[in-house]
Design brief:
Blueprint lengths: L2 H6 L2 H9 L3 H5 L1 H17 L5 H21 L1 H25 L16 H7 L3 E3 L2 H6 L6 H6 L8 H7 L8 E3 L2 H9 L2 E3 L4 E3 L1 H20 L1 H9 L1
Parallel strand pairs: 1-2
Antiparallel strand pairs: 3-4
Length: 227
């Protein structure tokens, strides 16, 4: 969402937009992304199309109940809840940061092209070999957007073979980089960069002051009446 569109939106839409991008929402991805975003919401929105989402939810609950019945609550915590909590938190952040990072660029319809969007609006996330193995080379997100048919194990090969892919827009899992990514919320068309809540609030206050100035300035009111 652009900053201008955000400022024009209703309070409810602003709240929902920022809520889904809040660090705590990302941390609790197990609840908000897996259960709500990937299971319950798609099914209730389009039951016939997303019946598999209900199957995933029911299967998850059945596994949880089975673990508690035979092994107890501690086993549920150690074998299902904590692993899923960590995996979903990490996964949610990875997908968030690969489109919300310093250096990302978005274009309107006039300047949009498929390859430009893939290479400039999604990142290459620098990870070590261990992270790359566990995440299936998810760091090569820009290549995935360029051609989703390339299997994950051949993404590094694609980069090495095509010189144009060797200088992507990058992010990383460094703590300071994570903080910078989490602060970014909307696209500012004027400055051509992602900005945070503080920038949005200052823009909203300036807009309110301009609106207030127009309504209280008698000369401006008279001019508006003549127009």
């Amino acid at each position: 969402m652009t900053k201008a569109n955000f400022l024009k939106s209703s309070k409810a839409k602003r709240f929902n937009y920022l809520f889904m991008r809040h660090p705590l929402t990302i941390l609790f991805g197990y609840v908000f992304v897996f259960f709500h975003g990937m299971c319950l919401y798609p099914f209730f929105d389009k039951p016939r199309e997303h019946y598999d989402c209900l199957i995933a939810f029911v299967l998850h609950v059945v596994i949880a109940v089975t673990i508690v019945h035979f092994l107890g609550w501690l086993a549920l915590l150690l074998t299902l809840t904590i692993p899923f909590f960590i995996a979903d938190a990490v996964g949610t952040y990875l997908f968030y940061a690969q489109h919300n990072f310093p250096g990302v660029a978005f274009n309107d319809n006039a300047g949009w092209t498929y390859d430009k969007a893939a290479l400039e609006s999604s990142s290459y996330m620098k990870t070590g070999p261990i992270w790359a193995w566990f995440t299936g080379n998810i760091g090569y997100h820009h290549i995935h957007h360029l051609n989703a048919r390339i299997p994950f194990y051949r993404l590094p090969e694609a980069v090495n073979a095509i010189s144009e892919l060797r200088h992507p827009r990058t992010t990383s899992l460094h703590p300071m980089e994570i903080i910078r990514c989490l602060r970014l919320k909307v696209w500012d068309v004027e400055s051509q960069r992602m900005v945070g809540v503080s920038n949005i609030k200052s823009a909203g206050e300036k807009k309110d002051r301009r609106a207030g100035g127009r309504s209280t300035n008698p000369n401006r009111l008279a001019e508006d009446k003549r127009l």
